[in-house]
Amino acid sequence: MSQQNELQQLNNRLDKCRHKLEAAQKRADNAMIYQFETEINQLSKKIAQLNHKKSYDLNKERKALLAMPFSRALTKEEKADQGKLKKSVKGLVIVHPLTKIGKELKLEEMTGFAPKEF
Q1: pTM of the predicted model, to two decimals?
Q2: Residue 118 has what pLDDT?
C-alpha cells in the first residue's frame, strides 16, 4: 500500500473514532470513551509518524537534486522531445514545477538537474 493511501485510511479511521467518541460522550459511556480516546491517540501518533517520513523523503530528494552541480530551465525544443534529451544527458532529472518536489524547490518552469553541463 502506498504511503498516501495508508495516510488516507488512517485519517478516515481517526474521523470515525472521533464521531463515535462524541456519541459515547453523549451517552456518558466511560468504557467506550476511554477506548476511543486511546485509539485516537494511537492513530494521531501513526499519522504524525507518516507525515514526518513523507516530509523527510521529500527533503532528502530535494537535497539530492540541489547537490547536482548543474541545473537550468528547459527550452521549448527540449520540452518537446524529452526522451531524446534524457538519452543524450546521462543522469538527467527533469522536475516540473507543479509536482511535490517542484513546489518544494519553488520552481517557476521545467528544470533539468544533471551531474554535468547540458
Answers
A1: 0.73
A2: 84
